[in-house]
Amino acid sequence: MAAPTSATSELPTHTLTNQTADDDAIPGEDTSEVTKLFAERLQAWKHAVAYLEDYVTATEKTNQAHGKEYERVLKTVKDPLKEGHHFDQSLGGIAGMFENIRSNTQGISNQHYETAKQLKGAILPIFERLHTEIKNKGKELTKGAGKGSKLVDKARAQTQKQIELLGQYTATYDSHAGSLKATDDPYILQRGVNHRLNKQVQEENNNRQDLISVQNSFAQFEAHIIQTVQHGLAEFLQVMTTQAEHTKAAYGDMVGTSQRMPLDFEWNGFIQRNNTVLIDPSAAPRTVSSISFPNQNHRSTQPLISGSLERKGKIMRSYDTNYYVITPSKFLHEFKTDDDLAKDPVPELSLYLPDCMIGAVNGAKFNVKGKDVSKGKIGGAFSMSHEMQFKAHTPQAANQWWEIICQAAGTVTNDMPESVPTSPVTGSESPAGATQAAPLQTEGLQKTGADHADPGSAVAPGTAAPSYAVPGEPGKIQWPDTVLAPSLPT
């Protein structure tokens, strides 16, 4: 910084006394005017420095308050995290990120406390000392130049009193005609004026010299004030810059920690921690065949016989193929299919065999008479007994079904089911109990029915019952030319 300009080179033109002959012995100016002016200027500097003190103090208190506020901010990410077990506790994940946020937030809070401490302990004393120097300068001005002004005023008062005394006795000199006391002799009084005037001029010159010294020192003192202010603000800037850079670095570290986190870090850790609970995508899906459950192979669940049979309808009088099962519980159940998966396997028909009557086998046919109990006890109580005509695919299969039904049926009769198909001419049925025609010879005939190969069926695989039904005409049969139509009973 450049040295301040010397005050002596720029002194004001105003002087306390003039050296001309027209100078008044007692100037009409205020000897303390210059001193008051400097005192007022020092007061202005003192107030300016006081503003800086207040600014630093307020900033110190603000940082102290910020430290407390950041402690409240820290509580928003308190440890531990809720459901924190879902996050990887090692560094690099969400838990590590929040730990980094807590650490940096605590650091910001501590930095604010540290900033407040430095402002109060290092920056504020700079301005406080400057304030004290200005006050001391004011005291110095009062004791130095201020005291000189009082001495000048006192000397001027004495000179003024002596001049007034000289004027009094010179005015009465002619009237008294030499009858004056020796002490009142105007000559003596004038010399007294000269003595006092000389002393007054000495005091004025001394005071003038003191004020010149004050003027010269003020230029340097004000330069010192400005240098101190500049130094104090530079130190203030350093403290606040450190605070700002620390805060910026803390927030930057928070963001950097989150950005360095791999996108699959938490997911991979979650998979590893819960590998016994989560689904393995590479594992094969479950199948019903691979599942076991209690009583799965209990003897009551195993059918005595199962397979497809044909049952003659009550209205259309044509045969429909369904899936039938005889269970150890002595039920004959009818199902549309043996598929347990597509539809809930609820029986379409259920016969409790101990309450049923079975007739004799006639080729592949046999009859069972009983009530349908598939609707439960209430529905079975109101149902009527019906004679149901069944037809197996082969006589051997019919015998197998018949033997098992006989073991469970309540009554076994020798009644033969009708074996004569509906006449193609009259469409009449054979009366029950009529003499049956001999079995027809069907070997070597071309079979038109599809083979029925059913898992679990008593019928041998690949064996099919020949069908001679006329398409589109239920109840009618078209016999081949090589086969004679059975004769109707007489």
UniProtKB/TrEMBL annotation:
Coiled coil: none annotated. It holds the Pfam family BAR_4. The keyword Phosphoprotein applies. It comes from the Eukaryota. Residues 303-412 form the PH domain. Residues 1-20, 413-429 have a biased composition (Polar residues). Keywords: Phosphoprotein. InterPro entries: AH/BAR_dom_sf, BAR_4, PH-like_dom_sf, PH_domain, SLM1/RGC1-like_PH, Slm1_PH. Residues 1-29, 413-490 are annotated as: Disordered. This is PH domain-containing protein. It comes from Clathrospora elynae.
